[in-house]
Amino acid sequence: MRFSYVSHLYCPKCERTYDVDQIHQLCECGAPLLVAYDLESMRQEVKRDVLKEREANLWRYHELLPVKHPEHIVSLGEGMTPLVPMPRLGRNIGINSLYMKDEGVIPTGTFKARGAAVGVSKAKELGVKQLAMPTNGNAGAAWSLYAARAGIQATVVMPVDAPELMRKECAIAGAELYLVDGLINDAGQIVAKAIREYGWYDASTLKEPYRIEGKKTMGLEIAEQFSWRLPDVMLYPTGGGVGLIGIYKAIKELQALGWVDGRMPRLVAVQAEHCAPIVKAWNEKKRESKFWPNAHTVAFGINVPKALGDFLVLEAVYETDGCAIAVNDEAILAEQRTVAELEGAFICPEGAAAFAAARQLRESGWIRDGETVVVLNTGTGLKYADTVNVNPPVLEPGDQFPKEN
Ligand SMILES: Cc1ncc(COP(=O)(O)O)c(C=O)c1O
Ligand SMILES: [Zn+2]
Predict the structure, then answer these.
(1) Could you tell me which residue ranges the Tryptophan synthase beta chain-like PALP domain spans (predicted)?
(2) What is the pTM of this model?
């Protein structure tokens, strides 16, 4: 048994292959690279029962992760987040079997910890000393913190409009932080120039192949948590779409290993009304998206006007008979409140977008009676305190309780 069954990198567009022991960013053709594993050997040598004795974190799947030597693992204990039944919300929406995969309870407060843990660990294994990335906030925060733990210097560029807390996470970890008066794509252009100039490791979404491997563990965990029987539908708030691509990749790997049976879940890419390039492409039956002008939404993590991996997101949606759907900010904020009121979970607006989409797809009948549905809540609402307005009455010491009956 090997610690990792990683074999090589490959391009999903032109099929060129690359060595996994050297630093590679994009393929020569400009497409993102993906990680391949020797699933045939693994199928013979590793049985899924080995997991029973392992710790409850994402490294329990080390055979399906790209880090070859355990001493390079940089971990804060991330993974194996709860799969929470949502019975009261389910009744309210009309889905009897509704679950939330809750990424609000992972280090750094969002699922970005998964990509950062695996991405930074592999960067360390490859000898990286300095990395740079654009971010909408949460990824920059997670990568800054994990890079600090690895002794790697991080440079992060984020939009001025990103929630302020995320700047502080980068800053406290000692990252070099810059703000840009624009969107994540503008941050990306600045980072790309700096990388050409200084030779840093490019940790931008899908410009290194390993972040997606970390995010794929959400798919592995959901399968294991359902005792290897797959749910019918999974909804994911989609910006760059890495989580959705990762979950799709994870389930295909599990199928190749023979660890799961049954149909691939129908994958739903959820976007916001004013930033919905993938939804538009899906509606037009296209394989790639177009840049979305003037993008804006309260769900800041999914404010991505053009994703490098759009063709992979769309492939996952088409191949699984899934769909892409946009929800408006009003629905997002209303859903965030409903989830807290009915289930006691303070979720992030991105997660709330996915719940709002579940509601709409149930109403339209796309989600059918009796189906098992998993919504990915990608982070904690605590990171977005500003999305909630409260004006409680202020009492003076000694005041009577003002309740009227
Ligand atoms: C909380 C949250 N949810 C969802 C996303 C979208 O992630 P992805 O790039 O995988 O689409 C982000 C990205 O910043 C995020 O911060
Ligand atoms: Zn290629």
Answers:
(1) 74-379
(2) 0.96
